[in-house]
């Protein structure tokens, strides 16, 4: 797929925010996996994916493996020796070539890179052709250290619902991290990271969430896609137990300055309506422990602040 030089969604959000300039965002990045990025990818055991399923719903997913399970074939291609687990909404998505957003994140060193392109499953592996490769800053990444893998995690078990259970709502309301997938028909897919203090995601009942959009790099790759296509997917990891919680739905930006002013560090808010929920128990054998929150995390409002 040949992408347009400019991303109209990114430019629209940048104009509304009063940030960025012509060419700032997707047009800045090419399809070359430079040697430092290739080395970083080979060291990772966790990759986050973003893609749409056969019905057009957008999902965020995770694949895991041993060191070296993601390795470059050449300067433009990556082979990932893993596919989404049984029950994952993207389990069969890559049976045909499909736009994919990929995020490689190393919680221990709070480093990350994004690789967007197209992927197809062949012989139990994902074969990815890069179209955009870029590094991201460490903002809002909580530092986590790897623990010993679960000795026998058992088979993944998936549960599908139309809304969130009470337990799932508590999971989200206590989370300090989630991953978001977005997709524009003309610009491809993207997978990105969001982080903050536990409680930065607000749960408004069984089918609605919201979170603050904090200061970033002004590329607006995620929000630019959402401007053109509100369908998106969220992924919450249970870092200690290896479970995953995947949501698909529709997002919209709330530019109300009064609402943003009530949340320290917020430039705007994102509201998300849940359309489907997939929880997978024992999705991965990997385990992490929280070492330190990100020093960039804005504080959450106090009850007194919220009552003003």
From TrEMBL:
Region annotated Disordered, chain positions: 1-24
Pyridoxamine 5'-phosphate oxidase N-terminal domain sequence ranges: 164-263
InterPro entries from the UniProt entry: Pyridox_Oxase_N, Split_barrel_FMN-bd
Alphabetized SUPFAM superfamilies for the sequence: FMN-binding split barrel
Protein name: Pyridoxamine 5'-phosphate oxidase family protein
């Amino acid at each position: 797929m040949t992408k347009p030089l400019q991303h109209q969604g990114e430019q629209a959000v940048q104009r509304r925010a009063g940030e960025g300039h012509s060419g700032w965002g997707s047009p800045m990045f090419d399809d070359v996996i430079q040697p430092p990025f290739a080395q970083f990818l080979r060291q990772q055991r966790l990759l986050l994916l973003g893609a749409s399923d056969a019905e057009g719903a957008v999902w965020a997913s995770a694949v895991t493996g041993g060191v070296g399970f993601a390795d470059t074939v050449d300067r433009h291609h990556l082979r990932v020796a893993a596919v989404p687990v049984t029950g994952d909404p993207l389990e069969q998505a890559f049976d045909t070539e499909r736009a994919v957003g990929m995020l490689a994140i190393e919680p221990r060193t709070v480093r990350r890179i994004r690789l967007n392109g197209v992927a197809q499953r062949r012989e139990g592996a994902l074969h990815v052709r890069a179209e955009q490769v870029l590094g991201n800053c460490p903002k809002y990444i909580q530092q986590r250290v790897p623990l010993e893998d679960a000795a026998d995690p058992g088979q993944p078990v998936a549960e599908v619902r139309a809304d969130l259970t009470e337990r799932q709502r508590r999971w989200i309301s206590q989370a300090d991290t989630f991953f978001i997938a977005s997709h524009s028909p003309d610009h491809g897919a993207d997978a990105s990271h969001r982080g903050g203090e536990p409680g930065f995601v607000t749960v408004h009942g069984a089918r609605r969430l919201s979170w603050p959009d904090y200061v970033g790099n002004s590329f607006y790759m995620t929000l630019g896609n959402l401007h053109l296509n509100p369908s998106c997917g969220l992924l919450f990891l249970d870092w200690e137990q290896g479970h995953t919680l995947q949501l698909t739905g529709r997002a919209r930006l709330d530019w109300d300055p009064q609402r943003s002013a009530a949340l320290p560090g917020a430039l705007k808010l994102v509201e998300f309506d849940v359309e489907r929920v997939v929880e997978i128990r024992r999705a991965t054998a990997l385990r992490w422990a929280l070492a330190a929150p990100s020093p960039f995390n804005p504080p959450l409002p106090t009850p007194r602040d919220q009552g003003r």
